[in-house]
Amino acid sequence: MNILVVDDEEDIRNSLQQYLKIDEIDSDVAENGLSAQRMIKETPYDAILVDLKMPGMDGQQLIEWLRHEGFRMPVIMMSAHGEIADAVNALKEGAQDYVVKPFDPEELVIRLKKLVEAQNLRNMVEAKSMDEEKNQSSFIGESPSIMKIKALISKIKDASSTVLITGESGTGKEVVAREIHANSPVCEGPFVAINIGGVPENLLESELFGYEKGAFTGAMNRKTGMFELASGGTLFLDEIGDMPLSLQVKILRVLQEKRITRLGGTTAMPINARLIAATNKNLEQMVRDGKFREDLFYRLNVVRIEIPPLRDRKDDIPLLAAGILARLNMQVGHKVKGFTPDALKLLCGYQFYGNVRELENILERAVIFCSGDEITSDDLELNGSVFTKDQKRGDAAQTVSDDNAKSLRDVEENTIIRALRRWEGNRTKAAQELGISRRTLINKISEYGLEEL
Length: 453
Known about the structure:
This protein is of the alpha/beta class. Among the domains are: about 100 residues, Response regulator (Rossmann fold); about 170 residues, Rossmann fold (3-Layer(aba) Sandwich), CATH 3.40.50; about 50 residues, Homeodomain-like (Arc Repressor Mutant, subunit A, Orthogonal Bundle). The chain has 22 helices and 16 strands. Helix 20 crosses helix 21.
């Protein structure tokens, strides 16, 4: 971070520069607005601290010049007690904040960092908005766990090995699968995805393998299956843990023989599709319980990628929020530039048990209800999300304590209620978040009498 301090008092300039240095923030100093103009033209600054009253060119004139010339860095105005009205005018001209002399330098640095972070986020949103397709396929994150995943994807970029992606619902398993595909030798081929848990069991086999005309009642024409559609590319089998045992045998045979036969057909057809599977379930435990074939598990588990939940990589929330906001701006035609520091702090402090999918849901509603050019903490409340006043006061730990005192049955019921409310009653999405099948969720809804949710 590089800051420009503009003040005609040498002591203030030097003391601010020394204090910023303690926080490992680089800075330059200028004694008036005209000198600052020259330096701003020569050096990119992340933010400017500027005194209001200076000879030659005062702070307000400097701000007017900055905005007229299109400089976007945030500005904090420094003013004396009797200059409050002028400071307010400076805010109208484009300053983001002001402090009254004498001020607490520690508080100033905190405000400065928040403004720079918010501006960086706005820049990212606009940059990503220019390339919607890239934004949709990009695997976003810079936390250590995500960087390890990116390194692993790079290592396997020239291989055609089967990959198993594991992680909680909503962590972005399909995004990782698309990133693997985009960096693979078959990147020019199709990427075909199917959610195993979202297809009725009696239709799943025909979706994967296709069928011939007359194969069964209602088969009026030949249907191409997903293995064929993915030829020369990648087939992504999401929620592989929901696959019935009878079909697991056939998938294993495909992996072994690289051939398929359509339902009602007699000819085995070679297929050339790279297989990536994903699940939010513990396949090792399912193997021990006899619910998943051990031989298929080992065929799938050649390369394993575990995606951590969003609550364990909160440093990625600003990046993810920027990418999601850019996409939402393109989709709904809004031009929300970013987030206020308070809104960003609220997002970064939330647990996100629905992971990235829950973040997307919250931001979509926030964009719809946002009345300004930035999402505020109030927008996050208005959208009907799971944010509560307790969470704003930092009382989330007390809520967890209360849950621990309840019976297991109460916890299960409350978890289902929260999931249903998060997805506004959508059974399929709530089931995906909870890591159970839709049928199991419906049975639980009936058991707890939650049909009205």
